[in-house]
Amino acid sequence: MKIAIANDHGGIELKKTLVTYFEEQGIPYTDFGVSTSDSVDYPGYAKTVCKEVLADDDTLGILCCGTGIGMSIAANKVKGIRAAVVGDVFSAQATREHNHSNVLCLGERVTGPGLAVLITETWLKATPLDGRHQNRVDQLED
């Protein structure tokens, strides 16, 4: 598994926290985000991560902004992407298992660093379920 991660100016510190987690866990990642607080437009960063996710079945995406909402809206405009804004561990597991989400969106202004790591860890460990869940994902793709 590899991670494509990006952020806008509102998600710098949260991305740093997650990158530290990836390094500690030996999880390979590519950082497509910004490292300054200068205002940037998030849609381009979301699109870059989504392209990486779609290009490689072993890559999942993580997008960080102030709330996670803007990044998720932008990411979900890309065909084949199922991005979810997550603020709790249960939803992290459910969105990966039931919705087969391939992009996780987090908000630095609404999710603390410790919880963000737990959410990310849970999401990465969860496995998409087949059966009725696959039927629903197929319908989303249509």
Could you tell me how far the N terminus lies from the C terminus, measured between alpha carbons in angstroms?
26 Å
- Which strand order does the major sheet show? 2-1-3-5-4
Q: What percent of residues are in strands?
A: 15-25%
- Helical amount: 40-55%
Biggest pleated-sheet summary: 5 strands, parallel
* Domain count: 1
Overall average residue pLDDT: 95
Briefly note the structural class of the backbone. Answer: alpha/beta
List segments where confidence is low: pLDDT < 50 over at least 5 consecutive residues. Answer: none
Please give a structural write-up:
The protein has one domain: Sugar-phosphate isomerase, RpiB/LacA/LacB (Ribose 5-phosphate Isomerase B, Chain: A, 3-Layer(aba) Sandwich). It contains 6 helices and 5 strands. Helix 1 links the parallel strand 1 and strand 2. Helix 1 crosses helix 5, helix 2 crosses helix 3 and helix 4 runs parallel beside helix 5. It is globular. GO terms for molecular function: ribose-5-phosphate isomerase activity. Keywords: Isomerase, Lactose metabolism. It holds the Pfam family LacAB_rpiB.
